[in-house]
Amino acid sequence: MAPDTQADTRAQGARAQGAQVDVIVIGAGPAGENVAGRCADAGLAVTIVERELVGGECSYWGCIPSKTLIRPGEVLAAARRVPGAAAAVTGALDPAAVFTRRDRLVGGFSDDSQVPWLTDKGVTLVRGTGRLTGRPRHVEVTAADGDRRVLIASRAVVVATGSRATVPPIPGLAEADPWDNRSATAARSVPRRLVVLGGGAVGAELAQAFRRLGSAEVTLVEGSPRLLAREEEFAGEQVRAAFEADGITVRLGTRAVEVRRSRPDSATPRGPVTVTLADAAGPDARGDDARGDDAGGEAVVADEILVAVGRTPATGDLGLAAVGLPPGKFIEVDDRLLAVGVDGGWLYAVGDVCGRALLTHMGKYQARIVADVITGRRDAAGEPARDVADGLAIPRVTFTDPQVSAVGLTERAAREAGLAVRAVSVATGGVAGASVRGEGITGTSKIVVDESRRVLVGATFTGPDTQEMVHAATIAIVAAVPVERLWHAVPSFPTVSEVWLRLLEEYGL
């Protein structure tokens, strides 16, 4: 049966007739919201489809709750670095109070406070699961009660369904009902023992957060030789050292080969979890039998296991096959965020689902680009909108202590891209602004300069509160500011941003 015929059959069975609007957005997370709002501001009729909560992953199970869990330990550590203030720190953190504040910041896991932002702009919210039918600009929506209807867009359909945590095929892992980012950020208690699989941003942040909230034993397992493997090497090394000082056991070059949850007992209501570990270079890494000879390796027992090894696009039930795209995969897009391989120029994808940069702020940026493309907006030079930042300057912050804040390319990535670069580094704690913030402020600040153009292509800052340093670097990269010009951007004294002056001096200006 041809795709159009299949779509007609589904539409005939729908209990509501097709309703036409200008733009349909599937997914009301940060990216979807921004597409809808910006298109509505331009006068278009917009319908947004959401099967969970308006606000999406970031608002309820990602950025907001995770940073809320991280913040108390961060504040306590900052106070302990300051003589005089350190003496006033006499008690432990109060997890119950932390969870209460988390609940307040996520709106009690209700989107009542977020929906008005859409409706006030005239966007129509449809609750349900959106699915591409195969016909251009047609979306079938199935409500929770099974009711179905077909929506038709006159201009565009935008997919903004996000991603979910990847659960690797480790024997026994799925049966152990592991935590993912949602389980961890929505936790109601602190596990006494926690194993974290994955040393990227999510795994690292939550490992330290729960250790500081009161977990007696936290073991972080990472298959690569260092934490935060996509960042500069010194970043992962400094975070590892800080974790070990916090009492976190860090197992690098290690993988889990089997997971088993036992019966519940008085100490562990969900039952203890036994995680068998092996060298990451063992048989499994070569594609041999799932357990191989390593199943008898070292065992770590915990109350909970958190899986943070990556993200999978939430496209499994989106109907991608009906429009000729591989199901369950990231949607490849061009620099206008148009889906590659779909005729007619009507299907777009933004946010995690397009796989370009799995970060909330980048999804929101892509959303603005898509809205401008759909509405025909042009810049001051008359050029149509297109995505530039994804290939130029992606800012990112890992909210560990020390923080890792970076934008653009690492030195290694720049060289692999064929750029002739020079990198210079200075100590983040080597300026007066750092010394007044407390004792023992450490970290590294590094810039990567494309010597052919004499402009920055990357920057990394580690240390306390470096998240506020990265935007200046982002501006320098996006605007292609020559390093000689940066010399005239005078940093205030005494601030940590004075490291910019030290970096340029190290460079030789």
TrEMBL record:
Gene3D superfamilies: 3.30.390.30, FAD/NAD(P)-binding domain. Residues 285-294 have a biased composition (Basic and acidic residues). The keyword Ribosomal protein does not apply. Its cofactor is FAD. Keywords: FAD, Flavoprotein, NAD, Nucleotide-binding, Oxidoreductase, Pyruvate. The keyword Flavoprotein applies. Binds 1 FAD per subunit. Residues 260-294 are annotated as: Disordered. NAD(+) binds at G198, G199, G200, A201, V202, G203, A204, E205, E222, G310. Residues 394-500 form the Pyridine nucleotide-disulphide oxidoreductase dimerisation domain. InterPro entries: FAD/NAD-bd_sf (IPR036188), FAD/NAD-binding_dom (IPR023753), FAD/NAD-linked_Rdtase_dimer_sf (IPR016156), Pyr_nuc-diS_OxRdtase (IPR001100), Pyr_nucl-diS_OxRdtase_dimer (IPR004099). GO terms for molecular function: dihydrolipoyl dehydrogenase (NADH) activity; flavin adenine dinucleotide binding; NAD(P)H dehydrogenase (quinone) activity. FAD binds at K67, G130, T161, G162, S163, D352. Its EC number is 1.8.1.4. Pfam families: Pyr_redox_2 (PF07992), Pyr_redox_dim (PF02852). Disulfide bonds join C58-C63. Residues 22-362 form the FAD/NAD(P)-binding domain. Belongs to the class-I pyridine nucleotide-disulfide oxidoreductase family. This is Pyruvate/2-oxoglutarate dehydrogenase complex, dihydrolipoamide dehydrogenase component.
